[in-house]
Amino acid sequence: RLGAVFHDMDKAIEEQESFALYGLDRYQLMQEILETLEDGRDVVALETIFRAEGKLPHGEPGKKAFAEAVDEGISFQKKIALMNKGESLPPLSIDLTVGEFRITGRIEEIYRNGLFFCRPAKVKPSDRLRGWLYHLVLTLLSPENCAVKTAVLGKDAAYGYGTPENAAECL
After folding, report:
1. Residue 94: beta bridge partners?
2. Which residues contact 14 (CB under 8 A, 6 or more apart)?
3. pTM for this structure?
4. CA–CA gap between residue 28 and residue 32 (Å, rounded)
């Protein structure tokens, strides 16, 4: 006898193989597809990259999941195009004093026709709040080369903000 004692023999080795895309992997793939489409690049190369990274299921389920994601990405890209963002503008520097508070930073995603926040997922309350806060700051800055409008677009909904009368009070 060896006198060996094996603990936790009852625990089976957990091994799972994904047959679909879920959660963060799906979101990251959708983000990459949208960026690739926006840049005018071919999305086919993404399948190889995501497969190599282990982010796609193996075999036919992976091919199907990728094809569905590409179709969904193209559909979402069409929704974004309908928003008519206009030309991209350089980042807008922020240095505001509102009451006792100083707000500094940059607005990166700014376009001739306003701010546009798009994500290939359901719009969360935090997305709406982010859009509203950036919109209030944009209203206070009132840049001449940009419309004071903000849109938040997700797979399930779209929200738009017009010019509030009391942006400083809202902040």
Report:
1. 105
2. none
3. 0.76
4. 6
Give the whole-angstrom CA distance, residue 164 versus residue 154: 23
Tokens representing 115? 């701010």
Cβ contacts of 9 within 8 Å, gap of 6 or more: none
Instruction: Give the pLDDT confidence of 137-152 residue by residue, as tens digits.
Output: 999 998 888 999 999 9
Q: What angle do CA 138, 144, 149 make, to 5 degrees?
A: 40
Q: At residue 46, what is the residue type?
A: L
Residues ≥6 apart with Cβ < 8 Å to 37:
43, 73, 74, 77
Average pLDDT over residues 70-78: 90
Dihedral over Cα of 31, 37, 41, 47: its sign: positive
143 close to 92: Cβ distance less than 8 angstroms = yes
The pLDDT tens digits of the residues spanning 92-138 come to 999 999 889 899 999 988 999 999 999 888 999 999 999 999 999 99
Residue with tokens 């091994």: 15
> What are the CA-CA distances from residue 68 to residues 33, 72, 75 (Å)?
11, 6, 11
Query: Is the pLDDT at 165 greater than 70, yes or no?
Result: yes
Question: Containing H/E element for 51?
Answer: helix 44-52
Per the listing, tokens 């940009």 go with 146
